[in-house]
Predict the 3D structure of the following.
Amino acid sequence: MLALLAASVALAVAAGAQDSPAPGSRFVCTALPPEAVHAGCPLPAMPMQGGAQSPEEELRAAVLQLRETVVQQKETLGAQREAIRELTGKLARCEGLAGGKARGAGATGKDTMGDLPRDPSHVVEQLSRSLQTLKDRLESLEHQLRANVSNAGLPGDFREVLQQRLGELERQLLRKVAELEDEKSLLHNETSAHRQKTESTLNALLQRVTELERGSSAFKSPDAFKVSLPLRTNYLYGKIKKTLPELYAFTICLWLRSSASPGIGTPFSYAVPGQANEIVLIEWGNNPIELLINDKVAQLPLFVSDGKWHHICVTWTTRDGMWEAFQDGEKLGTGENLAPWHPIKPGGVLILGQEQDTVGGRFDATQAFVGELSQFNIWDRVLRAQEIVNIANCSTNMPGNIIPWVDNNVDVFGGASKWPVETCEERLLDL
């Protein structure tokens, strides 16, 4: 628009006169149509980016391109301002010449200004309005460019595209996080299933090994086995399935082998409701072996912590609380006043290898038996000394009439195991 206006005025001035017109020459200024004067000045188009680029590269290219556009617009504005100043000067000269010619041509009444109106002031007014309109549009363009540059340096359309791209990237990231969470959950489930399968396999192998160690539970005879308690813990123990009736006398015999120190621990304990120490045989710390009945104590002169098999028997009767202690068939001690006239209460729990603080539980690892036990038998009477000797030298097989030592009457827990053994043969090997 501005170039067209400049060309038109230049042609008109060239056709009419030079800077120093010759006498008798005249200027002819041709008026432009208003629609041409007021036509809009189109904004420069933003070049399009070609090719697929990452968001960072697109942003960098857009900023560089916008900077080049601003520089070009500033140069264009400078050139247009210069053209406006030149046109303004020429129009002023054209106005002065037109006034003189109009006065010279008044006698003939001829219009010497061509297509311009008769009043030259109208021409100047129209050109001034056109120039002002052009200036306003140029300033509007400059403000718009500045606003675009200040607004994060991005055109509005490009900002929307960038926001859409960022939104899409955010959604992709959320989808990836969800996929990772699903994979984590699946991995956890697979790990749990694998662990359960492994534990099941190990339990099956352990059971099979135990069966092989027992000889598939087929001992030479129902009593030819031992209970092994290799560690001093509060969870390895054996349990007698049967319980005791009310007793006024008893004999308890067993084979044991232990080299633990200090003290072999608790070979057996019997607890009833209200009395955890109804019957207990224990060697704890540096104390001698003790027999507890109804929480009353008798110290026994027994010594069995040499790592060899020993046959132990204790007898007791409620009458005067008489007791006896035998080791390997020999009576080593006797006494009285151990819980006299107290009947042994029925319905309790018999535990091998642990001392009970409550019925069937609350074991203390420091009081646990470490070693091997076999041939645990209980009678409801006091055996004669010869009977005990015969049992100890394996000349008589005499199971207890209250609690006999048989495989199906003994359970083991916590890693304790049952092994086949012939205690008399083992005793001969120790000798």
Q: What stands out?
A: Helices lie at 2-16, 34-37, 55-104, 120-150, 156-214, 385-392, 423-430. The radius of gyration is 59 Å. The chain is about 40% helix and 20% strand.
